[in-house]
Design goal:
With about 180 residues, this protein is an alpha+beta fold. It has 4 helices and 4 strands. Helix 1 packs across helix 3 and helix 2 packs antiparallel against helix 3.
Length: about 180
């Protein structure tokens, strides 16, 4: 559990630090307070990557958008419950992939919960695009959650769980 907490802490600090630097130092127009949400700011970094200010009031890809205060706090409660569930479930994790995945997911989820409590929405700003098509705008927390889920899937594919009383292939005992 300590390794999960360490990874989650690193993710949380990285997420909040990048949000502070990008939002407060690069994207917030002079004189604009934290609320209402500001947007319509784009900094072209490369021909395929921009920094933009976008506010996600929903969950992934703006699903379950919660424009009201009630919806906001319901999403905070839902995200908190899911994060607590991941922590509870991860108590039995033994592989490095599953532990790393849990830490990434928990750290990212807490980072987005902080945004939702602080701003009423999650701050997103990484905008990748090609030929006029834009991938969903995201942040460090979103990236870590996605990578964490990918690690869980990879772990599930390569893991070889063994039930008590079963033999690992190649280690069968020979009877005389």
């Amino acid at each position: 559990m300590r390794r999960i907490a360490l990874i989650a802490g690193i993710v949380l600090i990285t997420d909040q630090l990048t949000k502070f630097v990008i939002m407060e130092r690069l994207l917030r127009p002079v004189g604009v307070p934290e609320t209402p949400f500001w947007s319509d700011i784009t900094i072209e970094v490369t021909p395929f990557f921009n920094l933009i200010m976008a506010w996600n009031t929903g969950i992934s890809f703006s699903m379950l958008s919660a424009e009201s205060d009630l919806g906001r706090w319901l999403l905070v409660a839902l995200q908190t419950a899911i994060t607590a569930g991941v922590l509870w479930w991860s108590r039995s994790f033994a592989t490095r992939l599953s532990i790393a995945g849990a830490g990434l997911i928990v750290g990212g989820a807490i980072g987005n919960i902080i945004d939702r409590v602080r701003f009423g929405a999650v701050a997103d700003f990484f905008d990748f695009h090609v030929a006029g098509w834009h991938f969903a705008t995201f942040n460090v927390a979103d990236s870590c959650i996605s990578i964490g889920v990918a690690l869980w899937l990879l772990d599930a594919v390569i893991a070889k769980p063994h039930l008590p009383g079963t033999e690992t292939p190649g280690t069968e005992t020979k009877e005389s």
